[in-house]
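Hey team,

Sharing the Radical SAM family uncharacterized protein run so nobody has to redo it. Sequence (657 residues) first:
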Amino acid sequence: MTPRTSAPGESLFHDLEPLLERVSKPIQYVGGELNSQTKDWNCGGTGPDGQELTVRWALMYPDAYEVGLPNQGVMILYEVLNEQPNALAERTYAMWPDMEAQMREHGLPQFTVDGHRAVRDFDVFGLSFSTELGYTNMLTALDLAGIPLHAADRGDDDPIVLAGGHAAFNPEPISDFIDCAVVGDGEEAVLAITTHIAAWKAEGRPGGRRELLLRLARTGGVYVPAFYDVDYLPDGRIKRVAPSPQAPGVPWRVSKHTVMELDEWPYPKQPLVPLAETVHERMSVEIFRGCTRGCRFCQAGMITRPVRERSITGIGEMVQKGLAATGFEEVGLLSLSSADHTEIADLTKGLADRYEGTQTGLSLPSTRVDAFNIDLANELTRNGRRSGLTFAPEGGSERIRKVINKMVTEDDLINTVAAAYGAGWRQVKLYFMCGLPTETDEDVLQIAELAKRVIETGRQVSGRKDIRCTVSIGGFVPKPHTPFQWCAQLGAEETDARLQKLRDAIRSDKRYGSSIGMRYHDGQPGIVEGLLSRGDRRIGRVIEAVWRDGGRFDGWSEHFSYERWMRCAEEALEPYGVDVAWYTTRERGETEVLAWDHLDSGLDKEWLWDDWQDALDETEVDDCRWTPCFDCGVCPQMGTEIQIGPTGKKLLPLSVV
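Structure output:
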């Protein structure tokens, strides 16, 4: 489409307003949320030769407003950038199909919700991908913005399209569409990029966008796909990924960014408060970053090493300021395994004491079975409603839990739920995965037996019959930078068949069937996610074909089309002699070059392979927080270290003025 012409930085709200009454949930496009910012377009001023020096970022979480606004990553970068006097950041989200149609009909380009400015007017269009299923939404946004889909077609007046988030640890499937990617923590990375862009602007933009991208690539912390050449073997595997001879000074490997001393980065200081209902209605504080539990399926745990805790006093200050700035009545204490914080008991008790008698409640994400205790749970519910508890055993049998390094026995789980039901809880949710490496039907059917034992235990310790257990099951998708990056994914039909057997096993026992709920996702979206997560540059043709065929919001079941993905993949991949199965259900060998090997997460590939072999041998590995180092490579290679307490400090109640 050809966007409407307007002066750079000019508000498009006059053109947007008439469209709002024609679309669903118009409030999501209005902006003006509490704590949002709209800075002066030229806040950075001009140089002595008249060159404008402001560095402008349009930040996007490529999903609907209700999913994107609560995203902590985007919210943090939005605030970090807007604190800089020479930078501004605004937000944009995926347009719902009805709004996309109206925008195309009326020539309105992709806009930000803060200043309603055209995304194409910004210097950087930064997208945060927590899941690969947002890739088609990126193409919609690029097209609506009037930015050429392919990076190779962009000119000096087009924004730098930058990808971040967990999915950026393998950006190869979208390498046709992005100019660069950043892996790891974003706080320091966006400031460094802003500094480079500001210097380039002050010098009069020498060499255009190519020179700017070269400068960024040479830092070793920004990956520019165009500066790397990929060669393939006759059988379709990658032969080599190497810096292009036309890009001198570009490193062979690009390193992830790791923020240390989290107390020095207490963001967001003023969290955004949504205007419309969103998936999370709470104020959240990240209490630590990273995880070394070593769950072999968990990409987030592997790529965010090492563990870095916020201090108990730093968390308390963030909670205090965040509640004052937002008015929320719930505080989420976030991390990959929040109950593992070394001072979690003092923290939850201190916060419960501080806010006792108020409407402020505390919550944790799903809790590890072996980290839960009733004292902790009681502190979390002291000022709030006692809702259900969520635990994630992940695997149904003890054998499969050894394979995935989830060191929880069945007795651990039963003892934990017995304590919960005995203390007055009536509902427990258990999360599992289907399709794990070496898994058999019997491993999955053990989920039914486990759920029945949970119900029976709950009835015995509580003396009640109204005990409930919900079994939630997701399909396992192998991810880059994990020990399972080499394994074969279970096919969609096999996944569905295994889940059907489990459902039948749960329903067949009338004593428990009505007390056990089952929620699951079929195997088809997992195959598409697997194609995108371990794909290489050839997958870009598939993504574009799906998007041109109408693919949008692939993370939403009502919009996802497996048939479309398979049809487009067959046509797009046929010239290369590979297919969807080659990327998903094929097991890789030790020496195969993986599409993401040139992106350095800090983890030694040899260590990951050894851990994969340990998985096949059903050998468990301890958490390196409490044991000697297992030499995964992260700390020495990244120049980092584990940062944990205890600090010995207490979270004192707020003084009343």
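The longest helix spans residues 441-462.

Ping me if you want the raw files.
A.
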